[in-house]
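F.,

This is the one I mentioned.
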């Protein structure tokens, strides 16, 4: 009887140990955590002297085009083509600052290309603030095929700049509290990325965000936080708060629209008038038939003058989002 119980205990314990070991391996990252917030010098020369600048905010969807979040097998040619399309569009804009969301740094799914570095070199941008938000060996998203779940993912956000980035902070935002712990452990961190840039002896604060996509309450909390963060810096410095807010005033399935919180700010304004937010001309998603404005740029008008703002449709379907381009002047 004792022998039977011993065998039964082993039979019960062994699968649990295997599952625990797999989870530890799956959720473990291979990248040094000390490099999760990093400033990189790409060595692309001295910035020009100028008083007007162009910023682009772009969720590149790791350059998977309209296949982002679709369970299909992709080839290297798709990513190479989309990178060429995206960088050609951005190069035409002569961007001085590019804020990227969903950029792969070393991932099996995108053939292990450091997309932030590749885009910076194509655009001859000298500096990069890199913030890692996904460093896993196993990612069960999308749910199928299972073979796509295996393989390193190192991904995140990036702020690329012609001008010296003097400091950089990576802030992890609230996770979805109702999600199981194992889900949150394997999912990406939602970030607010803050870069301080020396522009003509002034400190420009660039805040790059990618907010929660699937849970309204969590997205509301994250929006409140980044608004307070941006308003704090806006009291003393020119601030551009940019990124994918995952909220649109005309997307009914959201319920409560978190972007409305941003529009109530007394200190920050959107580069497009709020009444335009349901206009397809400034919608950014999906890129092949834009209906929703998910991507935004906010600024403090007492310290920044906006000269022009537009959606850069030349990026076509390099991503499932379209980029926003803003020309501005510091006051």
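My design for it:
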């Amino acid at each position: 009887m004792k022998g039977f119980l011993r065998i039964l205990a082993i039979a019960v314990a062994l699968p649990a140990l295997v599952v625990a070991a797999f989870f530890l391996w799956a959720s473990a990252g291979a990248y040094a955590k000390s490099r999760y917030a990093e400033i990189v010098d790409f060595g692309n020369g001295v910035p020009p002297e100028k008083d007007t600048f162009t910023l682009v905010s772009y969720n590149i969807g790791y350059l998977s085009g309209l296949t982002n979040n679709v369970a299909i097998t992709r080839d290297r040619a798709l990513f190479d083509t989309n990178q060429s399309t995206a960088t050609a569009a951005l190069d035409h804009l002569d961007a001085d600052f590019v804020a990227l969301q969903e950029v792969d740094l070393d991932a099996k799914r995108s053939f292990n290309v450091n997309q932030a570095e590749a885009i910076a070199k194509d655009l001859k941008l000298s500096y990069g603030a890199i913030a890692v938000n996904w460093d896993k060996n196993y990612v069960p998203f999308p749910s199928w095929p299972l073979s796509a779940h295996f393989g390193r993912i190192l991904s995140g956000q990036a702020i690329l700049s012609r001008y010296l980035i003097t400091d950089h902070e990576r802030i992890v935002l609230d996770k979805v509290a109702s999600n199981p712990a194992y889900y949150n452990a394997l999912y990406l961190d939602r970030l607010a990325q803050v870069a301080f840039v020396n522009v003509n002896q002034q400190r420009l604060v660039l805040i790059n965000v990618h907010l929660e996509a699937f849970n309204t309450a969590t997205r509301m909390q994250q929006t409140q936080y980044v608004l307070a963060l941006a308003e704090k810096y806006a009291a003393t410095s020119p601030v551009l708060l940019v990124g994918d807010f995952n909220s649109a005033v005309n997307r009914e399935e959201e319920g409560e629209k978190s972007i409305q919180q941003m529009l109530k700010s007394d200190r920050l304004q959107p580069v497009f008038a709020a009444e335009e937010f349901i206009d397809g001309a400034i919608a950014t998603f999906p890129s092949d038939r834009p209906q929703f404005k998910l991507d935004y740029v906010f600024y403090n008008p007492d310290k920044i003058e906006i000269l022009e703002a537009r959606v850069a449709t030349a990026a076509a379907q390099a991503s499932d989002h379209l980029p926003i381009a803003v020309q501005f002047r510091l006051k």
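Residues 1-30 form one domain.

Talk soon.
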